[in-house]
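Quick start: load a record and inspect it. Here is tetraacyldisaccharide 4'-kinase:
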Amino acid sequence: MFYRWAVALRNRCYDLGILSQFESRIPIISVGNLAVGGTGKTPFASWLMTRLTSLGHRPALVTRGYGSDEVLLYKIRNPGVPVVVRKSKIEGVAQAAREEANVAVLDDGFQHRAAKRDVDIVLLAAEQSTEGSMLPRGRFREPLNALSRADAIVVTRKVATEEAACALGRLAIGEAPEAVLGQIHLVGGVWTELEGDPHVEAHDGPPAGDLLAVSSIAEPDGFHEMVRSRASGVVECMAFPDHHPFSHKDVWRIVNRAAGRSVVTTEKDAVKLRTFSQELPRTYVLRLQVAWDFGQDAVMALIRQAIEGKSFARGNGLSDVIA
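Running the structure step on this input writes:
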């Protein structure tokens, strides 16, 4: 209860201008959520940076780097994009501007109100309930009505049906009727091999036979269901805590549990398990891809307007510069 009151008081102070916000000379696009983990933030932010790059922009990813696996994954997925890791996200955005980025993608930034965002995108997972306790007892950072601050709401789904995702979207837009609504399907894309180039598809495609699915992510059930839907044999699941730092002892447990079977894992876990590739049985990595159900054009139009508006303000000396 104390946490809820503290969050409400802090937000009220920002709403009233008692707590000030710093504005960057480059636009800030925040990708965040209400809950801790499991919404598909990393693949979505990666997709967004790829899209911005294809449109001729120079994005930079700004993160506090809580999970080193996420930082490494961003660097693998977006090799030409600077990844700025700073405890202060304001300082991170300033560094991104100094490195000549013209737009900052703020990782997990919805609750970081000290930096004024030009577009606030909030992700909601269709597999997660909107009911539950707030931190520290539960997984929610803010209640559902915090969506009223969002500029865009993107519902993500892995194994949930499109109908279930649409129902969540209707609930969310009720809290933020002026927000843009989009929906994406995080689908299992290509398979790669742990020992190989993470950008090169495995030559023999999905692994055959019985498998051991290893993960250390917030919502492992979605990954396990994806593997089961693509496997030809029986899939056994072995889940570790979110962001788990794998050790030699863990690898020994995986090898013994696999008992000669091939192993499949997530992209996030692959960046940590690659160190042990010589000790593990043949291990495949399932790469997630973003497929829009609807809303891509509306979300990108919102971002384009923000970038163009910030560029105009900067060109006319109207922006309060922090970098």
